[in-house]
Structures are given as C-alpha cells and as structure tokens.
Amino acid sequence: MNISSGILRRILQAPGDPGKGGDTRGRRIIGIVAAAFFMFFPLLPFVDNYWIDVGFYVGIYALLGLSLNIVLGEVGLFDLGHTAFYAIGAYVTAILNTRFQIPILFLLPVSAVAAGLFAWLVTTPVIHLKGDYLCIVTIGIGEIVRLSMINNPLGLTGGPNGINGIDNPRFFVPILSSRQFYYLLWAIIGISAFLLTRLQRSRVGRAWNYIREDETAAKALGVNVRHYKLSAFVLGAALAGVAGNIYASKQMSISPESFTFMESSLLFCIVLLGGLGSIPGTVLGALVVTVFPELFRPFAKYRLMFFGLALLLMMIFKPAGILPRLRDSGDRLRKTLEGKKTRKSHPESGSAQTSAGLPESAQANGKPLLRLEDLDLSFGGVTAVSGMELEVAKGGITALIGPNGAGKTTVFNIITGIYKPMNGRVLLRGEDISSKLPHQIAKAGVARTFQNIRIFPSLTCLENVLCGQHSRGRAGLAASMLRVPGQRDEESRMLEKAQACLARVGLSDSADSLAAALPYGKRRYLEIARALAAEPELIVLDEPSSGLNDAETTELSVLLKSLVEEGLSVFLIEHDMNLVDMVSDHVVVMQSGKKIAEGPMCEMRRNPKVIEAYLGSEED
Predict the structure, then answer these.
(1) SS (H, E, C) 204-263
(2) CA-to-CA distance for 281 and 68, rounded, in angstroms?
(3) Between the N and C ends of the chain, which has fewer C-beta atoms within 10 Å?
(4) In 3-state terms, what secondary structure has residue 146?
C-alpha cells in the first residue's frame, strides 16, 4: 500500500492560496452566511426532525473532520484509525454514565482527556514513523480498539451488543429533542473552530505546518518535531472524544459497528475533499459526505464509488481541496494582534543578529566558537568522516571546501544534530553538543541552510522566516488558543523580527507570496533570512551560491561580509572558489572524509594536496 506516493502525495503537497484581500473578504462573507444558515436551519418551516437529525450528523462528521484535520491537514500525518479515539470518547461516556450515573455534560471533558491520554499512550512509541508505515499502524490501532470492544474486556463494553440506557445531557434543562442536540453540537463546533483558528495563527500552528512541509528543515531550525506531532495527535483525539460523548448521549446506545475502519476512511475523505488545513473546507466536506447519500438515497450503495471518483477528480483539478486554506498575510497577522497591551521596545528586532540570551563566554575571548574533535561517522561499511578536526573562529568566515563526496555536508549534519558521530565531539563555546537534538542545537545558537534548498513551498515567505523565530518563543497550546497578553507580545516581536530579516536580504516585497512562487536565486536568500531569524551566533551555509549567477554571487559576498561586521560567525561549504576567495578568513579542505589542509585561500590554491584532490595526480 503505497499511500505516500500518488494521490495523497500530490494532495499533501498542493500549495494553499496566499491571503489576498478580496479572497479573504469573500471567504468572510461566505462564512457569515453559512453560520447564519446553520443557526436558523432547524427553525425553517419546511425542516422536520428528520432533516434536523441529518444536520446533527453533519455536525458530528464536521467535529470529527476538524479533529482529524489537526493530524492530517496541519501536520500531514496519515491517520486511518482516527475512529478509535471517537470510540474511546463514546465508550468512556457510556460506561461511566450507566455504571456510576455521572452526568453526561460532566463527562464531556472526561471523554476528551481519556481519548487524548489513549492517543498519547499508543502513538508515543510509533510517532517517529512516517507515511505508509504510520498509516498502517493507525489502521491497526483502530482495529484493536474495535475488536477489544467486541470481546468485552472485564465485562465493560457489552460485546457486540454494546451499551444501552445512556442518559441525555442536562444543561439547566434536559436536552431531549433533536433541535436541542443540534444546537448543543453546533455550539461546540463553533467554539472548536474559533480556538483552532487561533491555533493556526500561532507559533504552535506554524510549527505543525513546518513539520508537514519538511520535517528535517523544521527540526534543524528549532522545532521539537516529536513534541508537536504528539500534541497534534493528542488534541485531535481529545476533540474526537468530545464527538463520541455527544454521539453516545444522542443515540442513548452505542455498539462497535459504529466505529469501523470505513468510518475512518470517510473522515479521511472529508478532510481531503474540503481542503487540508481548511476549517471551513472541513465543514463543507462533512456536509457533502453526509447530505449526498440522503439526496441520492436510491444510489446509496454506490456512495463509496462516488467518493472515490470525487477524490480522483479533486487530485486532477483541485488538489488543494474545495475550499483550500488561505495563508495569512503579514497585515492579517498584525490585525490578530491588535488591542494588545503596550510592550517594551525591542531594540534588537530591527537587526538581523542579536546575542541576546547567549552566555558571556560567547563573547570574543580568543577561544574558538566551534570545535570539532576527532569526529568519525560511517554508513554501513562506507566511511563518511574520519578523524575530522577543525575550529571555527568567532566573528569570521570559515569555509569548508573539497571535491564532491568528500563528506562536507555530513560534517554539517553532525554539527546541527541530524547525524550523531560514532566517535569524537562537537564543542560549541566549549560545551559538548554532540548528543543534543537538532532543535536544541538551534536554540543554542546554530542555524543552517541546506545544499538542496529546503524551504516550505506551500507557506508564505513571511511564514517561512517565522520558523527561525520558533525557538525564541515559548507560547504553547493553551496560551495560543486563549491568546493571553504574553503570547500576543511574543507573536508581535517574532513578526517584527521576521519582517526585518526579509528586509535584510531584500525580500520585503515578497513577504506575502508563497515560497514556491519565488525564483531559484531568491529561494536561496529566503533560506538565509530564515536562518538569520533564529538569532544565531553561528550560521552554517551549505553551498549558498549554488544556482546563482555572477551578479547574485557578488551580492551574496557583500551580504556575508556585512553579517560578520554585525557580529555573526559564518561557516560555509562552497564550490565557487571565487566566492571563497572573496569572503573567507580561513579555509579547511576535505577529501574522502578527512581534513587534508587548512589555512588562507591563497595558500590552499598552491597546496599540492589540494591541487591533487581537485585535479587528481598523474599516473606513472
């Protein structure tokens, strides 16, 4: 089952739309009209209890779709067992209510916590899996939950017959009628959508999107990938548990047949049809999937075929979904911060470099900023790095050169924590960082770019650069949803810093453009701006001039020199010897995983070992 290639790969990689003013206003009008429709739908004279019940199930699928959208749409994790968390919420509600007579509404948060805790327990061991492997594991989780309920462990679940006699909720008065259940459910959906929208426009929501776009780049720039994957699963499961609570109280009975693999597949269709990451799109997807079989009941047995055909057509003509998510512009992000308390000015926010928060030992004291000691790393039987030692001085530009396959990028990956050395140490300001994770190293003051550009193509340039600021923020789920003053102040500071870094590399005019729309040369500068936004002390550049013309390379050399003048230290891999000659203070040469020479570039041009490494030696 090759899910990550083909349809799902194309849909997950389909770019969203930048938030143009007209599009945003149009979406807002549509949203107001849709909210008014759902609010007054049960009161319309031609709507009977049957259609109110249909509206209720639209709401159930919308809430479940929103919960899966956190995992699939925001983080890009394939979860085809999401119904398991829905079932946990329903069964916890049913068991505690029927056995201990705990009121249904009191069990609403209990069902959310139970489903979230279960998600944390079962996904913690497998969260490192990707694509098809994670998808297969989630299918297994869903089936294990369903079969456990059928087998009736400890006599709690009622076996195939399920649990009957569940009470109705009471909110001042008993909630009994279809209309009352309808309004209860859609009120919860409204609150959930409001809080999830706030999450999308926060440090947490952006971190999820960075992971979806490029997990390696995200963790190298300070995102704790494991933490945010788990948080998405837990939050999505908790919301599914709430849906299970409401479903159980409305039905007054539950059984395993309501929580099959087919239900999980239907939720998958809802999110993909509506648009990954799109909250209104998810509600629209739920409406289509629920109402379509009712309108065409004579053809109901063909509904899966129609849904499959719809997904195929979506892949061809509109892979981003019916209502793809609009990316927020810088103006939109600023508006979300309006009304915040006056904060203290941040004099460093206008510059591309700051040493705020770094220890005094980082100041110029004659000691190397970075030191590699006897590094070894092999892949299988192939030695990539052997006995590598070098120093990077503070406040200068050190270049690492060598022929293709010399092991230069491997050294960079060791420095930034992507690879762990088999032997040796990496010392940053005298501290051993060899065992630290990439996001911890980024927070310690090391930012990087990549040999093969790793921007986030479906996000705007501004959102890309905000990734660099992630490790400088602290706001979590609760603070982001409630938008407390500290979170608003933090967001404002990060926004200012990101805009300053874009201006620093000449990309201010492209802030609200999707990164995928930039020409190649500007993508290189966008990567540099993103690294600068991390407020590093050392920036590690992997072939920054690759793909640039002569004029752009000259501009790059001017930029690098100016960054050093502002206090930044640069360590770069480069094949363009002219650029190395223009900017480097010290050059280290590698061949076959080993250092063969070091010194000023003028000496390296005359060094016989360097000449032999690049040109080869004559055979006898």
Answers:
(1) HHHHHHHHHHCHHHHHHCCCCHHHHHHHHHHHHHHHHHHHHHHHHHHHCEECHHHCCHHH
(2) 13
(3) C
(4) helix
Tokens of 582: 């223009």
8 has a pLDDT exceeding 90: no
pLDDT at 449: 94
Q: Would you list the DSSP string of 466-503? A: HHHHGGG----HHHHHHT-HHHHHHHHHHHHHHHHHHH
* Closest by Cα among 265, 266, 311 to 58: 266
Render pLDDT for 347-381 as a digit per residue (tens, 0 to 9).
344 444 444 344 444 444 568 899 999 999 999 88
Q: Residue 241 to residues 103, 340, 532: CA-CA distances in angstroms?
A: 16, 34, 41
Q: 371 - beta bridge partners? A: 391, 427
Contact call for residues 199 and 481 (beta carbons, < 8 A): yes
**Spatial distance between the Cα atoms of 196 and 202, rounded to a whole number of angstroms:** 10
Sheet containing 538-542, strands listed edge to edge, beginning at the edge strand earlier in sequence = 446-448, 538-542, 569-573, 397-401, 586-591, 594-599
Dist. CA 519–CA 525, nearest whole Å: 10
Whole-prediction pTM value? 0.90
Strands (E), 329-481: 370-379, 382-392, 397-401, 423-428, 431-432, 446-448
Cβ–Cβ under 8 Å, residues 383 and 337: no
In sequence order, what are the beta bridge partners of 573? 400, 542
Token pair 């040469």 is at which residue?
589
397-401 and 586-591 beta bridge pairing: parallel
Q: In what order do the strands lie in the sheet with 370-379?
A: 382-392, 370-379, 423-428, 431-432
Domain locations in the chain as residue ranges? 7-42+49-327, 393-417+445-615
Pairing of the two strands 170-171 and 173-174: antiparallel
Selected from 3.40.50.300, 3.90.550.10, 3.40.50.150, 3.10.250.10, the CATH number assigned to the domain covering 393-417+445-615 reads 3.40.50.300
| Helix or strand holding residue 148 (H, E) | helix 131-151
Backbone angles phi, psi at 369, to 5 degrees: -70, -45
pLDDT tens by residue, 532-561: 999 999 999 999 998 888 898 999 999 999
Q: Identify the pLDDT of residue 215.
A: 94
Which helix (H) or strand (E) segment is 89 a member of?
Answer: helix 83-100
How far apart, in whole angstroms, are the C-alpha atoms of residue 506 and residue 525?
8
Phi and psi at 171, nearest 5°, equal: -125, 90
